[in-house]
Write a structure and sequence with these properties.
Blueprint (H helix, E strand, L loop, with lengths): L2 H14 L9 E4 L7 H7 L4 E5 L2 H6 L3 H9 L3 E5 L8 H13 L4 E6 L1 H15 L10 E2 L8 E6 L11 E6 L4 E6 L7 E4 L9 H20 L5 H23 L4 H21 L3 H13 L3 H16 L4 H11 L8 H18 L14 H12 L11 H11 L2
Parallel strand pairs: 1-9, 2-3, 2-4, 4-6, 5-8, 6-9
Antiparallel strand pairs: 7-8
């Protein structure tokens, strides 16, 4: 990949980006916000709703209150609950059939990033019935309005409730990729901290580190705007102040709410400033080995930040200053090193491993090829890496 071409591509997209039809979802926030959703849906003149979720959400009864509320306002609904972590094209096609067979008019995603991404995929297929999911891979391949989409995140991690991306896995090729289009930004989102209270500590940790990865990759990239710069900084501050608290004390509603806000801000930042090689690598590990995305990001993040070297010293130093983990007289290099060390400390304190189990040496060349194809020329990273750099990172993270 010609590095000059990549930078010209990224620069052109940054200039063109403000002209695109961005939107922010209408938010319902705070304790019990979920109870306001049925009336809001009904007010949109929607009669039949597809709910996309997963079997665990159903089993633990987390959605019961919402379903009762929908029944009270006499709103019909049908549930697709077979979404899996790293949702597949098959998930989307199955949910699409349920939508069509029941004459649904809108989609409600209830769960983590997987459920929201699956719902976005359904929306994309409805908007573009003659296009397959693989044909919509990449940038701006939808460009038509999807059915009204309501997003109810039950984790504080992906930020998918505010992003342009639907991340999909092709279970036949083991490829994991994103469909990126402004039409996929949810129209409404609910940030209710009560929905995250019973999230297991390990999921709290890895989804929180997922949000941190979004904020950091957006902040250190070259496509920041004033808005994404501010959102990234605010998200990093909130995560470093609250993530370990909610890991240890999941019932802390105030901290849970702050983590939801952080995930939203991080999602807002990266949806227009983009991510980097951490995500490119993590997507390959999700596609090949079904490694949960948040866990993959948490492990990979410090390795990639170190690999960027001098190109990332200044923005990482700014984040270190912001969070008070360095001395004023430290050099940018020292501050950046302390910020990376803080990420490693947080991972260790929350029992997140330093390495990935199960990576096959024979797979690494193909993994690296997929990762570099995703990242270049799209991602405005501090430093454009070569294929051998990616191979070296896989070797470092492999247990």
């Amino acid at each position: 990949m010609n590095k000059l071409f990549a930078r010209i591509y990224q620069g052109g997209f940054k200039l063109f980006s403000p002209l695109l039809p961005w939107r922010e979802p209408v938010l319902l926030t705070g304790e019990g916000a979920i109870n306001k959703l049925p009336a809001l849906i009904k007010a949109q003149n929607i009669q039949q709703l597809l709910i996309v979720t997963d079997s665990t959400i159903i089993a633990i009864g987390l959605m019961d209150e919402l379903l009762q509320g929908l029944s009270r306002v006499e709103l019909k609904f049908v549930i697709y609950d077979k979404t899996i972590p790293n949702p597949t094209i098959d998930n989307i096609e199955e949910a699409l059939i349920v939508y069509k067979n029941n004459n649904c008019q809108a989609i409600l995603a209830f769960g983590g990033g997987s459920a929201i991404d699956c719902a976005k995929g359904v929306g994309a297929r409805i908007a573009r019935p003659n296009k397959s999911i693989p044909q919509m891979k990449g940038l701006l391949r939808v460009r038509k309005r999807i059915p009204t989409l309501f997003a109810v995140p039950t984790t504080a991690g992906t930020g998918s409730e505010t992003t342009v991306a639907a991340v999909v896995t092709n279970s036949k090729t083991h490829e994991k990729y994103a469909i990126n289009d402004m039409s996929l930004i949810p129209h409404f989102a609910v940030l209710d901290p009560l929905l995250t209270v019973n999230l297991p500590p390990q999921l709290t940790a890895t989804t929180g580190m997922d949000a941190l990865t979004h904020a950091v990759e957006a902040y250190i990239g070259r496509s920041n705007t004033k808005q994404t710069w501010t959102s990234g900084r605010d998200a990093v501050s909130l995560i470093l102040e609250n993530l370990e608290e909610v890991y240890l004390n999941g019932a802390n509603i105030e901290a849970r709410g702050k983590m939801q806000r952080a995930a939203y801000l991080a999602g807002f930042a990266f949806t227009s400033a983009y991510v980097g090689y951490v995500h490119a690598i993590a997507h390959t590990l999700g596609g090949f080995y079904s490694l949960p995305h948040g866990l993959a990001n948490a492990i990979i993040l410090p390795y990639v930040l170190e690999c960027y070297g001098e190109s990332a010293y200044k923005p990482l130093a700014e984040l270190a200053d912001l969070t008070g983990i360095c001395l004023p007289e430290d050099s940018n290099q020292q501050k950046a090193a302390k910020f990376i060390a803080e990420i490693r400390r947080m991972n260790k304190s929350m029992n997140i491993p330093e390495k990935v189990k199960g990576i096959l040496t024979s797979d690494i060349p193909k993994l690296a090829q997929q990762a570099i194809a995703e990242a270049n020329p799209l991602y405005p990273v501090p430093k454009i890496l070569e294929l051998e750099d990616l191979i070296a990172i896989y070797e470092m993270i492999k247990e």
